Protein: MerR family transcriptional regulator
Amino acid sequence: MKEKELRRSQAVLPIGTVMKLTNLSARQIRYYEEQELVIPARNEGNRRMYSLNDIDKLLEIKDFLADGINMAGIKRIYEEQAEKQAEKQAELSKPLTDEDVRRILRDEFINVSRLTKSNGYSFRTNRNL
DNA sequence: GTTCTAACA
DNA sequence: TGTTAGTA
Structure:
């Protein structure tokens, strides 16, 4: 599932193609970059190169605009989105709580118990787990 | 021919 | 946001 993400983030589309795909003008696409909403990669000749993810984001911005949301509003939406993702990242880096450890240990015992029984062995204590 | 930046009769 | 000028 990671190979796919890499492809979607591969910047291979010139602005002309993006214009046709999104129905946005070059002026608008560049303006959104100025507003730091979609920052494309640049090739050797300083030409903007967009990825499929960039296309999706531009289409999303287009929808927000159609719904009457202004630049400031869209920026806020993405800022809040970034905050929530940062929280989830922090959550993942937190050390395990005692409760987490007990739950993991219990699941492990259940697995061991099942495998052991299939081999004809069993522990009396398994019944209490 | 396409894209870039900067600027506005 | 459109459009145009002068480049690369």
Observations:
- Residues 25, 27-28, 31, 45-47 of chain A lie near DNA strand C (CB under 10 Å from a C1').
- Helices of chain A lie at 2-8, 15-22, 26-34, 52-66, 71-93, 98-118.
